[in-house]
Each structure stands twice: as C-alpha cells, then as structure tokens.
Amino acid sequence: RHKWRNTTGEVAHADLCTQILELIDRYGTEIKWMHIPSHIGIRGNEKADQLADLGRRKSPLLFGRISVSPRLEEEEEERELLEGEASVWGYEEEPPLPEEDCPPTLYRTPGTP
C-alpha cells in the first residue's frame, strides 16, 4: 500500500512505520498527521521537541535491551522537563484513557511507565 520512498531513496524504519499504520487501522483509530516546523516559536513546540528527545533517549530500543533499573539522571531530567508542562499545554493533569478505548499494549495511566 505504501511505497516508502523519498527523494534520497528508501525511508528509514519503513517496516516500523508499516506496523504502526497496521495497528492504527486494526483499532480504527483516527490520526491527523501534520508537519510542524521546529524552532520557529510555535507555542509548546519546543517542549514537545524536548519530550520527544527524552523519549528517544529513554527507549529500550536504543540499547537493544530493557533495563529494570532506571537511570537517575534521566529521571531528574524528565522531572525538570515535565515540571510546569501543564502551563505549557494548558491543562492541570491529563486524565487516564479509558481502557476499552485503547489496545492493551498502548494503554497506560498517566504517571506509569
């Protein structure tokens, strides 16, 4: 269905993109994909970039294994980034997602890993 090519050739992680799109289709989830240019002063975009980078660095995929002992400095950095996040995004606390609305592997309550 997707050719997964760009102007320079093959798209990196095309297999992962395909799996994500298949999960989205399977669960009937609607997602609106948008390109948001970075570093141009869009409110909340800098925070989103920091959080995305933090997620990338904390990913067990980065090291090819899952660690049961969290890195203290990353936890501290996460606390600093999330501190005040409510004012950036305009909410006080994100409500938990109803379990029946989420596939089991994607369900989580805010504040849980």
From TrEMBL:
Any single Pfam family the record assigns to this protein: RNase_H
Cross-referenced PROSITE patterns: RNASE_H_1 (PS50879)
SUPFAM superfamilies (alphabetical): Ribonuclease H-like (SSF53098)
Composition skew (Acidic residues), residue ranges: 91-102
One GO MF term attached to the UniProt entry: nucleic acid binding
Region (Disordered): 73-113
Designated name of the protein: RNase H type-1 domain-containing protein
Domain RNase H type-1 positions: 1-57
